[in-house]
Amino acid sequence: MQYQGKTWKFGDDIDTDVIIPARYLLTSDGEELAQYVMEDLDPSFPSKVQAGDIIVAGKNFGCGSSREHAPIAIQGAGVSCVIAKSYARIFYRNAINIGLPIIECPEAVDDLEEGDELEVDTTEGVVVNTRTGKSYDATQHSPYVQQIIQAGGLMAAVGERVKAQAGESAG
Amino acid sequence: MGQTMTEKILAKGAGVDEVTPGDIVEVNLDLVMTNDVTAPLSIREFQKTGLEKVFDPSKVVFVPDHFVPAKDIRSAENAKIMREFAHEQGTLYFELGRAGIEHVVLPENGLTLPGDIIIGADSHTCTYGAFNCFSTGMGSTDIAAAMATGTTWIRVPPTLKLVYTGTLPEDIGGKDLILHTIGQIGVDGGLNMVLEFTGPVIDQLPQDDRIAMCNMAIEAGADTGIFPFDDITKTWLDEVTDRPYEAVASDPDAHYERVVEIDVTNLKPVVALPHLPSNVHFADSIEDMTINQVVIGSCTNGRLSDLRAAAEVLRGREVHPNVRLIVIPGSQKVHRDASKEGLDDIFMEAGAIFSTSTCGPCLGGYMGVIADGERCVSTTNRNFRGRMGHRSAEIILSGPKVAAASAVLGRVADPSQLN
Ligand code: SF4
Prior knowledge:
Chain A has helices spanning 16-19, 30-34, 45-48, 69-76, 89-98, 106-111, 143-151, 154-170, and strands at residues 2-9, 54-57, 81-84, 102-104, 117-121, 126-129, 135-137. Chain A contains eight helices and seven strands; from the N terminus they run E-H-H-H-E-H-E-H-E-H-E-E-E-H-H. Chain A has a seven-stranded mixed sheet with strand order 4-3-2-1-5-6-7. In chain A, a hairpin with a 4-residue loop joins strand 5 and strand 6. The model of chain B has no long low-confidence stretch (mean pLDDT 97). The interface between A and B is large, with 41 and 52 residues.
């Protein structure tokens, strides 16, 4: 998949409490959660972020709680993909499971200034900064994770498996 | 090549002889847990599979604890979705008045046994590693898939071995040890690894302190923590269950990603200042940091031993006039045991409130949310910005004794500063 968008840059150790504070966890609706995404770091962020924009961050992005509301809020805000130096494991799984494209590309993060436009090819694992023209290789997802992405998320993959098993027992 | 205890548990769960860090394995699960925040989403996703039944109702558990007793209509609706699904499926379920905070309740009910593989839609599911099992947090969709299949995929994590040596000073509890450790290795010091807690200090450490330590493995970025099994764990488990289990031990030649030795001899009680659990300092080095609120409780420090430690400090003393002290037992059982011992009286005489069990203020839910500019000392596990309320409020993490001493003195304080 390819994405192109303007970037918003955040630092290291961005935790899920600031991505979406617990006071909003009473819903899991993406559009509703999007109204509050990142507001404790930057109260104007929910109104500034535009569909297609890209979130860029340092290491350990999404650390903290297991709330899937965090990637759902980012997805709900129309963010096309997230690029970080590294991710906390639970956030990484959650994003893959719900189909929010995320990649790791430390060099691209280091070189980038907020507002730069990026072209991202998540299938090939390539990031291009259109301001500088420089191209970067992103870390590849493991084959297992690629299968989940290709199936269209974890539940789609499980659905296929459940159907196959039902077919087997019927046959 | 030897295997760590984590590798042995995962190999068994995957039905293979051995695994290597980095392998992706599909493992059978012994327990799958969610709470009132994460369950509604898990249930919705589970229902999309078209399956009528969860894989095994005796291995699926729901615990309402984050926003219950319901703080408003929406939290009541979420708890209702979970309650109805649990009843319809015949799964394990712990209702108010017979429950409390998930990570206190499950061990109390003998559901976290050595050798088990447990996943929960809550990041502090890592707590159960104190019982020599592999236990880790995931999101709602992973849990939905697990409820359907009884399995999950895991990337076998490398292990960071922590070796605690020296003589443990009095007044130092598990919370001080883990905060000190996170201060040393950082909030990503264990990123995507397992923390294996070992050493002569650990061999003597009471089970509740081990639980508090393992609870915060996630705060070092780790997938989970794990403790060796010994008589201390066995005695604790004997009180709550007679179900059989198979403990595991690491081989002497097991491979570790990294080994960190921590000499505890010169440690003093610590606090983590805002806004990261790694911002750790000795409590007695903090001068003139006045506070507005103290919370004692949570899945980290809401057990009977924690309440006893706090009560010991508070007995015959008074909470500072500028401070609100909120004491919350981790479960109904802890609540009852504390009351039987008269700890409730000590708290209330000191001028604290003693609440029913709930996560409440720990995640800024209710029952003690903090205002703009306020400062709170808390025995919880996260001091992230906005965690307990307003984005400009400050959270200072500590163990129960430092929290109680701070409540009395109205500022961040070490128990030795009380006269
Ligand atoms: S007490 Fe706090 S950290 Fe523990 S489960 Fe509840 S909200 Fe999470």
